[in-house]
Automatic annotation (TrEMBL):
PANTHER family tied to this protein: PENTATRICOPEPTIDE REPEAT-CONTAINING PROTEIN
Record Gene3D superfamilies: Tetratricopeptide repeat domain (1.25.40.10)
PPR repeats: 42-76, 112-146, 213-243, 244-278, 314-348
Protein name in the entry: Pentatricopeptide repeat-containing protein
Organism: Coptis chinensis
């Protein structure tokens, strides 16, 4: 067993620790030996060690490194908590005791708004949005003034939970305390109202914004499609000063979900004219459209397009092609795709 390594170069130390922690062939014991020889590890190295233990599902080791980090006077940054929290699934948290994450956070002597934001961000990244909201409520009780970053994080959590009440509470807070709004904050508030199905409130905020970007417009398009207002969605889509891949996808998916296959195909053709390269998910959606419409000629063109542009042709794309050929009455084409498949699922 290796007990000591003689590497003095800080850059080399960091590189080897990173390899040991993050590579599948890495050795956490070796990383720990090397880590212990560094007198003043920076926050990046601390985070790397925590991340390494998290990846190996060793929550107690990750927590011990975090506690050691605090005891030695190093404060967490916005990466620390996400790496730490990923080590704990729900059962592990129960095994370690209720509120274990909070106990770790409480150990931190530096509980300023930056630390609170890091913790909330960590919960958001592991999709524990209710915990994010609880932390925000604790911030209020401890009279910690939230920053614009805090509000963005909390409103984002509200959008995921479709929690209109808390989202409106945060929006009112912004108004009452005259928080300097940013495009990012306004965008997440529009997204929150849209996610909650309150397109009238989303539209009111949209109209009041002095600056809008492609994210703002796409959020409105998605909101209208999700609420079944396809005509309004198309109206906003046509008014967009610029469109990106997400915008085109939002409009296409909106039509597909409503079984408006001809309109979806029309958008896809416009997408090609705008030189926007679709991915395999869009291709599956369009092939489904062709299958529903019996549009064999378009489906054939899609197949050629996939092969010509080297779009990932996985089992799902292949299955969509088989379905398209079958529903269009071309069994020969379906059989060709089936025989060329390296892997098949039960639906192929």
């Amino acid at each position: 067993m290796i007990r000591k390594v003689d590497i003095k170069n800080p850059v080399e130390q960091a590189r080897i620790i990173r390899f040991c922690c993050l590579h599948e062939m890495g050795d956490m014991d070796y990383a720990r030996i090397l880590f212990d020889q560094i007198l003043e590890p920076n926050v990046v190295i601390w985070n790397t060690m925590i991340r390494g233990y998290s990846r190996r599902k060793a929550p107690r080791d990750a927590a011990l490194v975090y506690l050691e980090m605090l005891e030695r006077g190093f404060g967490p940054d916005h990466y620390t908590f996400p790496f730490l929290l990923k080590a704990f699934n729900r059962q592990m948290t129960l095994d370690c005791g209720k509120g274990f994450h909070g106990k770790l956070f409480n150990k931190s002597s530096k509980r300023d708004v930056v630390s609170w934001n890091a913790m909330i961000s960590g919960y958001n990244k592991i999709q524990r949005y209710q915990e994010s909201q609880k932390l925000f409520n604790e911030m209020e009780k401890e009279n910690v003034e939230p920053s614009a970053v805090t509000l963005v994080l909390v409103v984002s959590a509200c959008a995921k939970l479709k929690d209109l009440e808390t989202g409106m509470k945060v929006h009112q807070y912004v108004k009452d305390y005259r928080i300097a709004t940013s495009l990012i904050l306004e965008n997440v508030m529009v997204d929150m109202y849209a996610a909650c199905g309150k397109m009238d409130l989303a539209l009111g905020l949209f109209d009041s914004m002095k600056v809008r970007d492609v994210i703002t417009w796409t959020t409105m398009v998605s909101g209208f499609t999700n609420s079944g207002q396809l005509d309004r969605a198309r109206e906003f889509f046509e008014l967009m000063p610029e469109r990106d891949y997400v915008s085109w996808t939002a409009m296409t998916d909106g039509y597909l979900k409503a079984n408006h296959f001809k309109e979806a195909l029309e958008i896809f053709r416009e997408m090609q004219g705008a030189n926007i390269r679709p991915d395999e998910f869009i291709m599956i959606s369009i092939l489904t459209t062709c299958a529903q419409l019996g549009a064999l000629e378009v489906g054939e063109w899609i197949r050629i397009y996939i092969e010509k542009n080297k779009i990932k042709k996985d089992v799902f794309v292949a299955s969509a092609l088989i379905d398209m050929y079958s529903k269009c009455g071309n069994t020969k084409g379906a059989l060709e795709i089936f025989e060329d498949m390296p892997h098949r699922d039960k639906f192929s």
